[in-house]
Amino acid sequence: MTLTEVWPLFGLVIRTPRLELRLPTDDELARLAEVAADGVHEPRDRPFLTPWAERPPLERARHVLRSAWTSRGEWGPEDWSLGLTVFVDGDPLGVVWVSATEFATRREVSTASWLGLPHHRRGFGTEARLGALTVAFDHLGAAYATSEVFPDNAASVGVSTRLGYQPDGISRDVRDGEVLVSHRLRLDRERWERNDRTGVEVSGLEPCLTMFGVA
């Protein structure tokens, strides 16, 4: 048996005009970890509730490996988290995550992402999330996608706004003894359909459907 026969998600590939989204090989995962080690946000910023990206370079790299391995090891049709590495010309830039619990019933996914700092402000974040959401809405039958963001994270807010997300309340969490407010955002199918998916191609999904709990 091949790896893809045993774990079909390795055959799932999303292509956009500039990007390729897929699971990385172990060698590519090591290169992705190096991207994280080099930094994913400016030192003054704190964009994540879990401050993994503020830790020393080696810890950031190890976090990337643990996240990828954990998502595969704990995968189940009722609770899954798909971490798609974002590639340009074979080079990893970051990750976009699509996650769901009881997707077959709820038809709702949540998204999160990061890109290496040199790749910010080039439209890659919007293009990567568009590609990932194409799988969720157009191929898996999602009804909603959600995201959470700190109000001062202008880049993430901008991605969500461009794709049609709307306000969906707030969340209050504690980080380092401080209460932080996040804005919840929601994208429904009607607003999703207004997005132009020209040039987005999805391959290798059919063998994965049982893993997503929809076949």
TrEMBL record:
<protein>
    <submittedName>
        <fullName>RimJ/RimL family protein N-acetyltransferase</fullName>
    </submittedName>
</protein>
<dbReference type="GO" id="GO:1990189">
    <property type="term" value="F:protein N-terminal-serine acetyltransferase activity"/>
</dbReference>
<feature type="domain" description="N-acetyltransferase">
    <location>
        <begin position="19"/>
        <end position="186"/>
    </location>
</feature>
<dbReference type="InterPro" id="IPR000182">
    <property type="entry name" value="GNAT_dom"/>
</dbReference>
<dbReference type="Pfam" id="PF13302">
    <property type="entry name" value="Acetyltransf_3"/>
</dbReference>
<dbReference type="InterPro" id="IPR051908">
    <property type="entry name" value="Ribosomal_N-acetyltransferase"/>
</dbReference>
<dbReference type="InterPro" id="IPR016181">
    <property type="entry name" value="Acyl_CoA_acyltransferase"/>
</dbReference>
<keyword id="KW-0808">Transferase</keyword>
<dbReference type="GO" id="GO:0005737">
    <property type="term" value="C:cytoplasm"/>
</dbReference>
<dbReference type="GO" id="GO:0008999">
    <property type="term" value="F:protein-N-terminal-alanine acetyltransferase activity"/>
</dbReference>
